[in-house]
Amino acid sequence: MKNTPGWQAIEQWLAAKELKPFVFQEEAWEHYLHGRSGLVNAPTGFGKTFSLFLGTVIRWINENPDYRSKSVNGLQLLWVTPLRALAKDIGRAMEEALHELKVPWKVGIRSGDTATSVREQQKKQMPEVLIITPESIHILMAQKEYAKRFATLNTVVVDEWHELLGSKRGVMVELGLSRLRGLRPGLQVWGISATIGNLHEALEVLMGKPSPAHVIVKAEVKKAIEVHCILPDEIEKYPWAGHMGLKLRHKVLPVIQQSNTTLLFTNTRGQSEIWYHQILKECPELAGAMALHHGSIDAELRIWVEEALHTGTLKLVVCTSSLDLGVDFRPVDTVIQVGSPKGVARFLQRAGRSGHRPDAVSNIWFLPTHSLELVEAAALKDAMKQNLIESRMPVVLAYDVLLQYLMTLGVSDGFNAKEIWAEVQGTFCYRDMTTEEWQWVLAFLTTGGDALQSYDEFRKLHLVGDTYHCVSRQQAMRHRLHIGTIVSDAMLKVRYMTGGFIGLIEEYFISRLSPGDSFRLSGQNLEFVMIKDMTVLVRKSKSKKSIVPSWNGGRMPLSANLGMMLRRKFHEAMAGTAKEEEVTILQPLFDLQQLLSHIPREDELLMEQIETKDGYHLFVYPFEGRLVHEVMAMLLAWRISQQHPITFSIAMNDYGFELLSDQPIPVDDTNAQELFSLDNLNIDLQSSVNATEMARRKFRDIAVIAGLVFQGFPGQHKANRHLQSSASLLFKVFEDYDAQNILVRQSFNEAFFYQMEEARLRETLARISKDRIVITFPQRLTPFCFPIKVDSLREEMTSEKLEDRIKKMILWQ
Amino acid sequence: MEDVLHLFRGQHWRLSAGRAAYWEEERALVIADLHVGKSAHFRKAGIAVPANIVQDDLYRLQQLITKYDPLRVIVVGDMFHSEANNEVQYFKIWRRQFPHIRFELITGNHDIMAPEIYEQLEIVSQPFLQLGDIYFVHDLKDQPQPLNGQYVFSGHIHPGVWMVGFGRQKLRLPCFYFGGEGAVLPAFSAFTGMYSVEPEASSTVFVIAERKIFRV
Description:
The complex is a heterodimer.
Chain A: H1 5-16, H2 23-33, E1 38-41, H3 48-63, E2 77-80, H4 84-100, E3 107-110, H5 116-124, E4 129-132, H6 134-141, H7 146-149, E5 155-158, H8 161-165, H9 168-183, E6 188-193, H10 199-207, E7 215-218, E8 225-229, H11 249-258, E9 261-265, H12 269-282, E10 290-293, H13 299-311, E11 316-319, E12 332-338, H14 344-351, E13 362-367, H15 373-385, H16 399-411, E14 415-416, H17 417-425, H18 435-447, H19 449-452, E15 462-464, E16 467-469, H20 473-481, E17 491-496, E18 501-506, H21 507-510, E19 518-521, E20 524-532, E21 535-540, H22 560-575, H23 581-584, H24 587-596, E22 604-612, E23 615-621, H25 626-641, E24 647-652, E25 657-661, H26 672-675, H27 681-688, H28 691-705, H29 720-737, H30 742-755, H31 758-770, E26 772-776, H32 786-789, E27 795-798, H33 802-807, E28 810-811
Parallel strand pairs in A: 1-6, 1-7, 2-4, 2-5, 3-4, 5-6, 8-13, 9-11, 9-12, 10-11, 12-13, 17-21, 22-26
Antiparallel strand pairs in A: 14-16, 15-16, 17-18, 19-20, 20-21, 22-23, 23-25, 24-25, 24-27
Helix pairs in contact in A: 1-3, 2-3, 6-9, 15-22, 16-20, 16-28, 25-27, 28-29, 28-30
Chain B: E1 3-8, E2 11-16, E3 20-23, E4 28-31, H1 38-44, H2 52-68, E5 72-75, H3 86-95, E6 102-106, H4 115-120, E7 123-126, E8 129-131, E9 134-136, E10 151-154, E11 159-165, E12 169-178, E13 182-184, E14 195-196, E15 204-209, E16 212-215
Parallel strand pairs in B: 4-5, 5-6, 6-7, 9-10, 10-13, 11-14
Antiparallel strand pairs in B: 1-2, 2-3, 3-4, 8-9, 11-12, 12-13, 12-15, 15-16
Organism (chain A): Chitinophaga chungangae
Domain Helicase ATP-binding (chain A): 29-214
Protein name (chain A): Ligase-associated DNA damage response DEXH box helicase
């Protein structure tokens, strides 16, 4: 292969730049030129793009000796990227290489941002390389004679596959690939992924069917990461609870000043607003050299920030997960993580945002927001050493995405049910789907199913000959506007009275404000004036006091890997074998915990019973993340409440949970173990957890993706509260009148899988059944329980009669 | 459905957990925010909604009429959610059971149907109503100035209150609210949201807990 003209051309081109290919690149080219498909596993910044892109160029040169004069060749390579922002940079890099190699290929971009004129041009003549988002593949497939566009396609590369894998956007990729493989049976498919726990599964999902011919090419490059921990000077004075971390900001400022460019990651948008404000207040000289970046900030402003990061004109960007992904920001040399990153993979990813060059060291500073979080720093370091990286679980049986996809094919050229069923069954996502379910899906699209058959709106497809078509032009138009699986939240635009867009804010937050109130967004202090045409009008505020909005979401649970490492670290602290500074500095806190209560060993579960003026508390510490704790707390509360009428208020964090009652909680050595029993778990879960409510919440997105709820035409946004109620009403209709509805079933499955993390719950209970349960009765609140107790988000579980409860209560005024 | 007797301004009021107040002296059943046609309105917008909501609401009203045997039913606003639709037709048939009862509507912001439709339904509609020293109006804010010793009965906001207890317990319940300026009735329809009222110290509040009602 190395003697082929294409390979030679590439080698010479690189040599002219005094470069030579990485081993993994050559390996990938070799596999590609042999016609294989597979997955490249490489961190960003190591030429992963070229490991596949140049492969296609090599083959093109090999197969076309007259390549220098061959233009207008039709689409050769489809490059799928999860992020629009990535497309431009990748396109630029490809164009540069093609130009220097004198290959007259064109590189096009197709995403939601692509101008209509460019789209029209692409319709007439596809470029040789098209960089595209998963949604845009489906949009192309929703157009008449879409097959023509892919007539010459021979390679698809899915970039950042690990990002798409665990989401419904990944399912869109799977379905798009299934159709493309149907059109082009010899299609070669490659993925590019960062390291995740289930790389082989990631390959299988991409390929649909397993085959020994599929390969994984690993870049054997070790990225040097240095983790620094910001330690409080006096651990005794550092707060036991909190999530802001501002107390340590004086230690962060020198780090920022000594760095070239710093990214400061926070876990929530609200937190980023506060940090931005505080730093600016203390370092006014940073004005103009610092910026804020999160999901609710105007897209144009975000793009500006990203570009400024490229050129190195910014010293500091305060950001959220909005900057987790994306292009290389070469000037960034320091990353600061405020609070727990919740998982090893995310921490690594964020660390990797600094020191992007292959030989550079990534520097990440961990800033704990409360004392115990310091242990997490030690846990993260160990987890990184052992490469304990989380898996991304692929989405399976997403019927909503399938309904959308079939509608997509229905609005373009129609589809033959037999042919498409074979393709769909060949995907990982739908390989366990039954023929009955397929028939149900078809029937649902043609009749609306048992519950909706009296509504014309839900009769979407008609069988003409042997193909299913959408005959309504209006429905086709509606559908094309709503292709995708990202369901927007109820967000309102925020704009100055005098004009000028600032960002987005949740409807829920604004509904609690009165005109004249001040709030903070995009780093600005704003006074709420009024809401007009779904836009929040504001003016600059001089008020000293302002509210920071709390955006929903962003409450990721601690990962299982990190939880396990944490338990080990506590064990080590208890045994006195811990060597890390982060752990040893906490010794006074551990001593207090041990004095008041106990520090659990790795094979122990700690429970604390404490009485305060609020009532009777029971704290439990499984260290399994807030979602598992929520369900476990409900389960425990329900099992206790079966013995006699009692009401609990429930709170949790990533380390443990609390049951609080107005009466003593009857838990002791004699019954503790059975409260965690796996026996009757299914029945008890159904009685204790409001699975229907959880499923109803999941159903909202499902209904939108499946096209049951129309989100409105662009510009004439439908009030989201309206959308919410219609989705929940549909849910009720289906539950009552269409028991077979697989979308309802899907929403329950999603609730069990994502909301309750059922599998992890079972593993936890199994672990606890082997653990020794230690119950203590501390005289006052312990360092462990304090952060949970102050959490204000609470849920309830009761077995008392409503009237009995009211009789014990007073009116709140 | 239980009720409690509330002696107020020398009059006997039976406050029912069925979200209605019965004024014994006037033999008047007073309700607010019935929202007939709301689910049909949703369905017309392409949103499937169970149809039996209006049946359930009107069945409850029927039970209350049977229990108290009123001569008049006063609806303090938002009797109908939107334009005339098939639920309004359902109401028309339902209405025939009680030809002897006078239905009086104090118009609210949702009552936008043409006057002849109210006539066909045999409903007397008016922006407010004075009966003794009680002044009925949909929105408490639209009370007359000065009040001249009258007391206002209103609806509109679908009031609810928070109850709190030991062990950080909290509950929000629909209520009858008797404040200094006037009274606010709970929304009659089950298909409505709730607005949290912050009670004044001098107010009297009755909370509805399923089929029971309590003074708190």
